[in-house]
Amino acid sequence: MNHRYIMSASLAVILFASLCYSQESISDLNARVAQSPHDMGALLALGIAYHNEAVAGNKKSVDEGFACLDTVLAHDPTNAVALAYRGSLWTMRGRDAWWPFTKLNDVHKGIDEMDKAVDLAPDNVSVRLVRGINSVHLPSMFKRLGTAMKDFYYLLNSPAFSHFDANLKSTIYYWSGVAYKQDNQSGKAKEFFMKAVEAAPNSDTGTDATQELKGLS
Q1: Distance of alpha carbon 166 from alpha carbon 133, whole angstroms
Q2: Cα–Cα distances in Å, from 80 out to 30, 77, 121?
Q3: CA distance 205 to 56
Q4: pTM, 2 dp
């Protein structure tokens, strides 16, 4: 298995931070949890924050994220956001594993949990984006590109889409473009990259979409 599904650190942090319920630092969130260990909202936000660090390659943060999200899910197994992020963490645990069988097993656990999260909350933007972006980055052997494209299509056609802020719209457009590019549909990819730039030209996804367009022209 290759590591193509690891996002660039800068983009990943911006993207997943936009989906968090808190913009507090890990140290601040740890302080909140220490003061109120039964605050599931703080634990969820902390788990997501650790997830963001894990995306950038911090192996220790994978375990820290699991500890938080496991607690949230023990309290409420139907928490779709926690389940989606834990599923994504499973794929990163697979990324970091040494044995091929362990890699495969962990990634499949992650896929199963992200799919279950979408079943639980199909309209949740965070859940759809986590699964969609993770699916784009998984190696082709897992055959998840179609799933990613379905998630982005769902978000693009959501009645709530017109009310999303510019950065979130740009994010959805950008990753739709990435998915179509991987599917060798360069015309559609170009269309979505242009929309990503139009929505938020100075955002990270707007900047990355501009670079993608240069490669497609």
Answers
A1: 18
A2: 22, 8, 6
A3: 17
A4: 0.87
